[in-house]
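re: ur msg from earlier - yeah i can do the zinc ion complex, just paste it... oh wait u already did. ok heres what im feeding in:
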Amino acid sequence: MDTHSHARPSDAVITHLDLDIKVDMNAKRISGTASYDIAVPHGDRIILDTDDLEVEKVTDGSTQELKFNMGDSTRIGRALTIELPKGTDRITVQYRTGPNAKALQWLGPEQTADKIHPFLFTQGEAILSRTWIPIQDSPGIRFTYDAKVNVPTELMAVMSAINPQERSADGNYSFHMEHPIPAYLIALAVGDLDFAPIDDRTGVYAERGMLKRAAWEFEDTGNMLKAAEALYGPYRWGRYDLIVLPPSFPFGGMENPCLTFATPTIIAGDRSLTALVAHELAHSWSGNLVTNATWNDFWLNEGFTVYFESRISEALYGEEYAGMLQQLGRQDLLATLDDIAKGKHPEDSKLRLDLSGRDPDDGMTEVAYEKGAAFLRLLESKVGRDKFDAFLRDYFDRFAFQSMTTDRFLAHLNDHLLEPNHVTLDVDAWVDGKGLPADAPIPESDRFTKVEGQIEQWVAGKPAMQLDTKAWSTFEWMHFLRHLPADLSEQQMNELDAAFGFTKSGNAEVLAAWFEQCIRSDHDPAFARMDEFLNTVGRRKFLVPLYTAMLDSEKGRLMAQTIYRNARPNYHSVSVRTLDDILAWKDNHPPVTF
Ligand code: BES
Ligand code: ZN
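and the outut:
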């Protein structure tokens, strides 16, 4: 039972979607038809999810009009209930999107890399696909899809499917997804895009001015794919491409099948942030092949993926690299657990969630990612890597293209791993208990210990310029910035910035970690750059800590409101929703005066 969807698949369920839409970049509207194959026999009605959609007409396979009803608006949208005469195996819904469709971000040219043409992208996860397609929007319901998309001829359309590599003359594009996927994995991007191949299975789409840098940054994608296959079996989706979106994309990455959507903030110029590609690629198994049945089972998507990401990273870049990645993850987890324990929903620190009555987005935290991955690492340590890998490989094969509940996974785990290997383990504490169990493996990192040593020497008076930082990776810089002492003086901040050029850094992770320090130490010289950063980058993971840190002081609070007022129109709805909440933002917020 998925409490975040109106669909009742036991009454009637779709098996295939045919989308035929026109994208109007000026009116900021998508309109057209969605036709579905429906499994027969079925009950006398089918329910689709919609949110902010205008439904004009519903017909059956022989264009007979069907009666339909739009339910009340609820926090999960409006149910579209369609009467189904016996034996109806095909229906068509004519519809258009509303002006505030939450999945869609319509960008003006000034918000793109090349600044010439507008851009559109969609974000489906968790329950936003229903804002641009009437659909059974539950991760437990899968269907194949075909799409015809019409866009202005100067733009190109790409989807979560096998994609064109060239511009069409007439602005018409066709897509085919042959594998059944859940609705949250349907995605579309429209912009002035070009394509560059990486190898024969992988490549990258980006705006022209970005394409070369992107192709260089992601050169290892093909190797990641091979490493992933060597671990958990063949890649089943044909091609694996990436698209670099404009900076307002609210996530680091989104694992849309065949085409990962990525933030440009991972293009650091030195390939140091590409673990994100390993993460999204890993979802081609954990998440896209075996899918969380409801959002309460989100850890089955993300915990497995973080574990898998780390294994791919280790295979390519070694244990030290993976160790640092795990350490950073553990730091994020401990900070999140702290916040959750103090907040309104302490039960959000469980792996198995209960998100009924809430926006699922609110319960999707580091817990699913890092506590989930820690649980899998513990399992690995109990049976050894060989057995654990064999178990996971079999799991992805056996349940390919199916959805998975936490209960079903636990039963499978017990029968196929725990019992045969006589493993004793408090599974309940891990899955249904709060916080991090004491037997969580603690990742080791010599390199981080050395970073801490350098911080100690600096605090003891050694000039920053003389610290031993020569061979440091981005991860070490992040660890350094996260572990600086609180309340640094103006002079100390200046010294660090002069020695290491943080404010001028082109690395978004370094910048974001530095800005957090700048807020805490009220380091004025960085604020102009931070303002610019917050006005261009819409990645929620960076926005939340920075705005939150600003709220700690009166001066910061004012700065946060001023920056947010300016930047808010540039953010995607998912970031806006979160930040409105954090900043207690009201549309009629009084103007800030100095
Ligand atoms: N599937 C998520 C993004 C997501 C989660 C979208 C929940 C909507 C709701 C994606 O795979 C992800 O986890 N992205 C991370 C990067 C990753 C390296 C941890 C992100 O965006 O920061
Ligand atoms: Zn993920």
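cool cool. DSSP finds 17 helices and 20 strands in the chain. ping me if u need the other ligands too
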